[in-house]
């Protein structure tokens, strides 16, 4: 376990994220997104799974050729040909990493792989030592670690560490674990695997029960120092841990003393770039980057925000690259919000006029879902005609 509090951000948008139907990327798109991820400050970019197709091999190779600061990682199964192909794809990277591994839960061992636990232990050693012939930086994954019995998981991870893994990834592949359970798993490994203090423990959480971010943060608190995540949380099924959520949790809870290399003011534009390139809309209420993340629409909240933003905002929108928070005028808005917006339009109304404008405003608001500036101009013009 690394003792310092720097948390390494491993982005797998281009690999686990790209596995989502309809999110496939061309070589050119992968390179462009990889450059943007590097600019964002991601430590490791998982660029793809080179054995999966000739197109992905070429895409990973091109990413490896242009990225200078981030590590470029290629995925492989615990199969010699996969590992050799991954190594070839990243041979020109400045910081190459191979990510290799095998399933470890009883479900995977007996039902998917139809093998034995002893064979899994051999394979864990084999895949890491094989990858070590090509690169120094080898990450081992224990697929479905979330549902793997801790004592067997520790034996598997021990094999990977003995074979020279630099990072051990403990995926909650099916998004099953509770935060306490996942955190205890990390702690168990720290207490039971010899030499684990010399390697980085990584989290890789899926969001099937909506717990991927909570699980990742709990794992960090128990000693993990790398988080695998994707922009907007995209990924298989319900997705992966969302990069922007983990990064902002660590930033906002700075008393925990964790740091990342992410330039948070680029998060919003990165989110939009991924959404547009991968045809994957961002839900409006998505934490940090959703369209409503900094929009206030109810009267009570609007009044509070107008008095002092901190009343209802824990993040300054500029911190994540959003221009400013917005006050959305709806039938739930109050006089304070109406007056505030009129003021922004350069319109000052005395108290009785404001009352009349508010009545008219509510009549309009009940008809349309959002009252726009043009509606306000019309309301004010109508008042002036009457006067
Ligand atoms: O979810 C998972 O277990 C994975 C591994 C291949 C790392 O994506
Ligand atoms: Zn995954």
How would you sum up this structure, described in words?
The protein has 2 domains: 8-277, Alpha-Beta Barrel (TIM Barrel); 295-386, no CATH class. The chain is elongated. It has helices at 27-40, 54-66, 80-89, 106-112, 117-132, 150-162, 179-192, 212-222, 243-252, 267-277, 299-307, 335-344, 351-365, 373-386; strands at 8-11, 44-48, 71-77, 96-103, 137-143, 167-172, 200-205, 226-229, 295-296, 326-327. With 387 residues, the protein is α/β, with parallel strands linked by helices. It starts with 7 loop residues before the first strand and ends with a helix. Helix 2 crosses helix 3 and helix 5 packs parallel to helix 6 (150-162). The model has no long low-confidence stretch (mean pLDDT 96). The protein has an 8-stranded parallel barrel with strand order 1-2-3-4-5-6-7-8, surrounded by 7 helices. Strands 9-10 form a two-stranded parallel sheet.
Task: Briefly summarize what is shown.
InterPro entries: 2-IPM_HCS-like, AIPM/Hcit_synth_CS, Aldolase_TIM, LeuA/HCS_post-cat, PYR_CT. Its EC number is 2.3.3.13. The protein contains 14 helices and ten strands.
